[in-house]
Amino acid sequence: MAMSAATSHSLLLKNPNNPLKPTTTTTQIATFPTTLSRPTTNQKPPISITCSSAPAAATTTPLQTLPSTSSDRVFNFAAGPATLPENVLLKAQSELYNWRGSGMSVMEMSHRGKEFLSIIQKAESDLRILLNISSDYAVLFLQGGATTQFAAIPLNLCQPDDTVDYIVTGSWSDKAYKEAARFSKPNVIWTGKSEKYTKIPSFDSLQQSPHAKYLHICANETIHGVEFKDYPKPNNPNTILIADMSSNFCSKPVDVSKFGLIYAGAQKNVGPSGVTIVIIRKDLIGNAQPITPIMLDYKIHAENNSLYNTPPCFGIYMCGLVFEDLLAQGGLVEVEKNNQKKAKILYDAIDVSNGFYRCPVDKSVRSLMNVPFTLEKSELEAEFIKEAAKEKMLQLKGHRSVGGMRASIYNAMPYAGVEKLVAFMKDFQARHG
Ligand SMILES: Cc1ncc(COP(=O)(O)O)c(C=O)c1O
Questions:
Q1: 244 noted as active-site residue
Q2: What's the Cα-to-Cα distance from 298 to each of 89, 144, 280, 281, 414, rounded to whole Å?
Q3: How far, in Å, are 3, 228, 247, 309 from residue 31 at the CA level?
């Protein structure tokens, strides 16, 4: 990335002769363009982020180091917190010390000041464009991770004796179900446990509870790598569909109108940990159980535009940069195409390996985001992970509960990263097969 020429800025320094009257001196301060190029590691044409809410040209005080380049970075296959788009990181780096001429970092701003309000409002409106979210829905930026939503959902959407339905397709939906048991009467209407969570049920076979307040699914099981390709429809028109989209949020277009509530922790596809996004149909808000803590009450957060208390400001800012980037890529239709291409070369490599590599997940529901695989010779797995790390491909170890390997290839994983992994897998097989 080219940095623009340094420009002169005046700095006020303490005058030793008269401490009350500062002297003026001139120093060289590097300025960054407001538009940053997207590094070309994935061989796509450069795209740029422009920030329409910028009140002034971005000017930064001296940076001791130049922004790092892609050659310094590893390919990070972690399941979350996960890799972020390089151009977003560079943009944040360039604005870290002095956000767009405000004289402050986003980390230092009042959450009620006009600067931060412009950041959170733009983040929300860009997300609404990305997912085509209608005004019937509230968008909330919350804290506590998706895990907190496991409790907030039953607390807000049903009373203690109400029945709610859960489809359990992996560890995360299982955790959500167990938490719901503290605040409602959940029914597991299907579980993939006996098949080691490698499947999604056929929707016709589901025995839904006739009066369930909601039907909960985990749209993408991060640990097991199973992803809903379509969504079940509640039989009862009063039952709403709820999805934990933590690990495939904004990875593809979603018809939000099919859902009463969608929630997602940001730290996989759209930002750093610390931000949880809830998209909820407005008419469902306002019926929380009396024991609901104020911080879990959607009504409080909706009425206060996610500013009831101090929100995770910097995390929300980062999410906003990611949303801009996704829009600049052409929106979620284009994003999904890239994700399909990346997942295809990886699953193909597994499938043509004559069993050297295996992915246990039913082919029709394989996740585009999290690809679990094992080695036929399981004694080689540690060596695989070690050698991959030497090649700057990190975090490929599978979750401790399932073992093997897992490559998380979220939106921000460049095509080149998956290509490199596939080439490494072929080479590893040639040497150890
Ligand atoms: C699908 C899914 N749901 C929920 C969670 C829990 O999220 P958090 O750690 O933000 O509470 C995770 C975390 O990895 C996840 O992958």
A1: yes
A2: 31, 13, 9, 11, 36
A3: 7, 46, 36, 34
CA distance 118 to 371: 37
- Pairing status of strand 137-142 against strand 163-168: unpaired
136 is a catalytic site residue: no
Q: Which ligand 1 atom is the nearest neighbour of the CA of 221?
A: 1
Would you state the structure tokens that stand for residue 430, as one six-digit string? 């040639």
Ligand 1 centre distance from Cα of residue 84 (Å): 17
Q: Over the stretch 26-36, which tens digit does the pLDDT of each residue have?
A: 333 333 333 43
Dihedral sign, Cα of residue 219, residue 47, residue 80, residue 275: negative
Residues in CB range of 168: below 8 A, 6 or more apart? 174, 177, 188, 190, 191, 192, 193
Residue 276's DSSP bridge partners are 142, 265
Q: Mind listing the pLDDT tens digit for each residue in 392-427?
A: 999 999 998 888 999 999 999 999 999 999 999 999
In testing the pocket of ligand 1, which one of 171, 218, 222 has its CB within 8 Å of the most ligand atoms? 222
Helix-helix angle 332-351:415-432, to 10 degrees? 0
Tell which atom from ligand 1 comes closest to the C-alpha of 170.
1
Is 118 touching ligand 1 by the criterion CB < 6 Å? no
The whole-chain average pLDDT of the chain stands at: 88
Q: Is 274's C-beta closer than 6 angstroms to any atom of ligand 1?
A: no
Does the Cβ of 173 fall within 6 Å of ligand 1? no
Position 140, amino acid: L
